[in-house]
Amino acid sequence: MEFLLLGSLAVRREGALLELGGPRQRAVLTMLLLHANEAVSVAQLTEAVWDVPPVSPESNLRTYVAGLRKVVGDRLVTRPGHGYQLTVEPGELDLDAFDELVRAGEQALADNDTEAAAEAFARALGRWHGIPTAELNAGPLLRAEFTRIQERRLTAVERYAKAALELGRFDDVIDRLRRESALHPLREELWAQLMLALDRSGRRGEALEAYATVRRHVVEQVGVEPGARLRRLQQEILESRVPSPAALNAHRQLPMDIAEFTGRETELRKLCEPGPQTTVVISAIEGMAGVGKTKLAVRAAHRLVQRYPDVQLWADLHGFDPDELPADPSAVLESFLRLLGVPGGQIPESLEARAALYRDRLAGKRALVLLDNAAGEDQVRPLLPGGSTCMVLVTSRRTLLRLDGVRSLLLDVFTPGEAVALLSRIAGADRVDADRDAAQRVAELCGHLPIAVALAAKRLARRPQWTVLDLVSQLERGGGLGARGVFDLSYQALPENQRRLFRLLGLHPGEDVTADSAAALAGLTSYEAGDLLETLLDEHLLQQHTPGRYGLHDLLRAYAVDQVTAAEPPPARALARRRVLDWYVHTSWESAQQLNPQRKLDISPADPAVHPRTFADRDSALLWCDTERANLVAAIRDAAEHDLPEHSWTLAQCLWDFFNLRKHWADWIDTHGVALAAARSAGDHAAEGRMLITLGIALREVRRHDEAVDCYQQALAIFHALGDRSREEPTWNNLGIVHMVEGRTDEALACFEQSAAIARELGNPHSEAVTLNNIALLHADAGRFDVALARYQRALEIRREAEDPYSEAILLNNIGEVHRGLHDFPQAVSHVERALETFRAIGDLYGQAESLDNLGLALDGLGDRRGAEKCWLESVTLFEELGEPKADEVRARL
Predict the structure, then answer these.
(1) Predicted local distance difference test score (pLDDT) of residue 523
(2) Nearest CA to 316 among 293, 282, 288?
(3) What is the pLDDT of residues 180-224, one digit of tens each?
């Protein structure tokens, strides 16, 4: 039997879920499992089940125990005078497995084996699939037990983060710690680890933002300042002028090695052979999908690290991803250059210039570059270093013979011996040795394809009552060879509700899925979908690299697409796709209302089966957007490609505040371009005009001013033809901003006056305040500070009535700048500090950078040079993170 506590309570016999009864009966079982193989008294069970127990709890408990005996049989016994005891065999309880892995991780840390420690802690945390028995109405004793278990999990998270930080695996640590710190905002050790990970990965501005966030939580909820460690860590990050180690190099950027790697010794020797001394070594591993190219490349890379110790870079080029375009070499180079210590503002625009700078940064370094899943030579060529001290490993399904000097290694399927060895490693040597002929037959039926052998082996490992011959019978009954036959075996063995969800996942946009988005896709509740996803994970039809998020191997995704196309008629597929896009649209709208309460947008109602997420505060909304960003971008494209244009442009509109806040300019321009084309294809001129405005803003932000002006002029023509004065007003304002940035003061003032007149005509004080701010900026730039101050103060009065913190912060910062112009430095400091506090509260990195620069100038005016330099240093860090050229301007002040 299997007993699962680390998530929804479940018991399985031979893979089948058993019925456990109502909430109180489940609470009894939970308490017995927490004290497995020990007697649990009636008094303890009573306190675990009820806050206020009935008059005779013993009678109720006997009823619950009788119900549980129908499930677990004679494992549950009465211990006269001591209570009840549940027998659990070794390996049956997931909590025991978790504890064992944690102990292994602790021992590895004690032995200074950081790699083993990180792997053990990661595997331990992978056992968790949600909040333990969240569906129970637990009594006080059981709630205390849950707190104790949760504490053990959080300690494991912290231990894992410590080990992974030492190994340089920053991305995984950052993603995990962001989620955990959001769930446990008062646990300071999580925040400390997050700050360290961000700083060491060259994201100093975000590290300081994390400190501001935890400080706000602690002050608001406890009424004290953060502890000494956090305060000291913040000060160290602020005062350090030396770039963090990860900003200078890319040590240990390789993916984690594969624990169950088997065979391929001949291929490994070839890959690890020294190459020519006069040119970069390029080894290309070529072969069909599922043959194990990535596993081999990662294993070889880890063996080669000692030969190339200076730098290790890795990128997934998504060359054959059915749901994602191949990676743009220019974007990959930007990522590599940031890892090599090049500030964002110093990364050139053109592909050729980036490639040249990349080669320069690697010159003379012993560097290893792993490029996974390449589409072809043109994608790889710009990513090649130029020196003979470097090596490149490439994996691809295509031959890459047009790369000069490439050494190609064609990777075939496993030999029979390698396939049986992998089967033995996963399913157990004793079982395989008991029937070697059957094991060889399994390998044959899997076509010796590694992914198929691994999936079959894992299926056998999950069914201890099966022999290897039983697995042969199952595979032969399916009638297929290779991966398809194994997939069929696993898929056909599922109940229909699990098969249905699996095949519908082939329609999901983006790389991974959550219980919430899967629920929308299938028309289920989140609880139902989560339970089905966990079952599919147990069957190894899904992967889980992050708790709560599930993905499909590309071969399984293609299989799911085949199944959904065969089993679901077109109307059913269209309905599923519409539901999941409804969920993304409406959840994004809920997040947008937290990020900008002033936002107004009419969106069509969602399908009644869709239950969008809501957010308690701005931080949780922003965290969701950060986590779902890749899926949201994919959803906009998916909607446009499947004749759902309104979903495409509405989702783009909902995400505008998020893109603006985080300055994801590339995503912003890309998605709004897709949505604009969708609006035009549908002939919806109002939507076309709205998309032109927000696209124009993004183009203006990246200084593509002529294109921005063209967008605004097209939008003005559309709104004038529609007679939509409410949309003309912001368009005039945005056109004025472009003119102002380019120094065309008269044209800018004319646009702002036109916008202000329309705002007054429509009785829209919010828009009037926006325009007053911009008019004041023009007067301030001309040195007319008194006139500017009057305009700003009127705009600020309007903003405070509207309760718009973002716009209020902008005005406070601008008023501070005017006070600097008037040489009233104390008032300048006062206003800018209030602006900075608000920008930090709402998570606006660009606003923080601007106000820090302004505050530094004000402090310098007061004679506080040291305080000014601290502000400028933090401002430079934030501007560099955003790729903003203004970083050079601020750096010159230091």
Answers:
(1) 94
(2) 293
(3) 888 788 888 899 899 988 887 767 778 888 888 888 888 878 777
| C-alpha torsion 505→509→511→512, nearest 10 | -50
Distance CA 676, CA 687 (A): 8
Count Cβ atoms below 10 Å from residue 645 Cβ, excluding itself.
Answer: 21
**Cα distances (Å, whole numbers) of residue 741 to 694, 697, 754, 774, 883:** 17, 12, 18, 11, 18
d(CA 679, CA 684): 5
Cα distance between residue 446 and residue 429, in whole Å: 19
**Bridge partners for 311 per DSSP:** 367
Mean pLDDT of 587-591: 95
Residue in the structure block whose two tokens are 């992978």: 126
Query: Helix, strand, or coil here: 544?
Result: strand
- Element (DSSP H or E) covering residue 742: none
Q: 132 pLDDT band (50/70/90 cuts)?
A: low
Is the pTM here over 0.90, yes or no?
Answer: no
Look-up of token digits 């992967």: 543
Q: What single-letter amino acid sits at 218?
A: V
User: Do 692 and 718 touch, CB atoms closer than 8 A?
Assistant: yes
Cα dihedral sign for 249, 253, 254, 259?
positive
Element (H, E) at 85: strand 83-86
What strands lie across the sheet with 39-40, from one edge to the other?
39-40, 83-86, 76-79
Helices 204-221 and 825-842 pack at an angle, to 10 degrees, of 90
**Phi, psi torsion values for 754, nearest 5 degrees:** -65, -45
* Per-position DSSP letters for 16-51, written without gaps between them: EEPP--SHHHHHHHHHHHHTTTSEE-HHHHHHHH-S
Cβ atoms within 10 Å, residue 91: 11
372 bridge partner residues: 316
Distance of CA 668 to the CA centre of its chain: 17
Q: CA distances (Å), 250 to each of 156, 343, 544, in order?
A: 26, 14, 26
**Cα dist from 387 to 280, 338, 641, 879, whole Å:** 5, 20, 43, 32
Spatial CB neighbours of 72, under 8 Å, sequence gap ≥ 6: 1, 11, 86
Cβ atoms of 461 and 455 within 8 Å: the answer is no
CB-based burial label for 706 (10 Å; 0-12, 13-18, 19+): exposed
Cα 215 to Cα 191: distance, rounded to the nearest angstrom: 10
Name residue 125's amino acid: L
Compute the half-sphere exposure of residue 433: CA atoms within 13 Å on the CB side of its CA.
Answer: 4
User: Whose CA is closest to 645, among 669, 679, 695, 672?
Assistant: 679
The residues, ordered by sequence, that sit 6+ positions from 588 with a Cβ below 8 Å of its Cβ are 625, 632, 651, 654, 655, 658
Q: Which two tokens stand for residue 110?
A: 């004690």
In the block, residue with structure tokens 């180690």: 245
Task: Count Cβ atoms within 10 A of the Cβ of residue 482 and give its class: 0-12 exposed, 13-18 middle, 19 or more buried.
Answer: middle
Segment 852-892, tens digit of pLDDT: 999 999 999 999 998 899 899 888 888 877 767 788 888 88
Q: What Cα–Cα distance (Å) separates residue 634 from each residue in 510, 631, 660, 688, 782? A: 5, 5, 18, 20, 45
Q: Alpha-carbon Rg of the chain, whole angstroms? A: 30
CA dist 158 and 162 (Å) reads 6
SS3 content of the chain, % helix, strand, coil (to 5): 65, 5, 30
Quick check: 660 and 592 in contact, CB under 8 A?
A: no
| Cβ–Cβ < 8 Å for 595, 589 | no
Side-chain-side CA neighbours of residue 135 (13 Å): 18
Tokens of 86: 């549940």
Please answer whether residues 547 and 565 qualify as being in contact, where contact means their C-beta atoms are separated by less than 8 angstroms. Answer: no
CA–CA separation, 308 vs 251, rounded Å?
Answer: 10
656, 675 in Cβ contact below 8 A?
no
Quick one: DSSP state of residue 93?
A: B
